[in-house]
Amino acid sequence: MTGLRRVLLVDDDAAVREALAQTLDLADLEVTTAGSFVAAKDHILRDFPGIILSDIRMPGRDGFHLLAYAREVDEDLPVVLLTGEGDIPMAVSAMEKGAFDFLEKPCAPAELVEVLGRALAARQTTLDMRAERERAQSGDPAARMIFGTSALAEGVRERVRRLAKTAAAVFVTGPPGSGVSKVAEVIHLCSEQARGPFEKRAAAGLDRAGLHQALSSAAGGSLFLDEIRNLPADTQITLIEALEETGQARVMAGSTVDLDETMLNGDLYYRLQVASVRIPSLAERPEDIPVLFRRYVHQASEQAGLGAPQITPEHLAALMAQDWPGNARSLMSAAMRFVLGMPEGVSEAAELGLTEQMARVERSLLIAALGRQNGHASDAARALKLPRKTFYDKLAKYGIRPEDFRR
Question: Keywords in UniProt for this one (predicted)?
Answer without folding.
Answer: ATP-binding, Nucleotide-binding, Phosphoprotein, Transcription, Transcription regulation, Two-component regulatory system
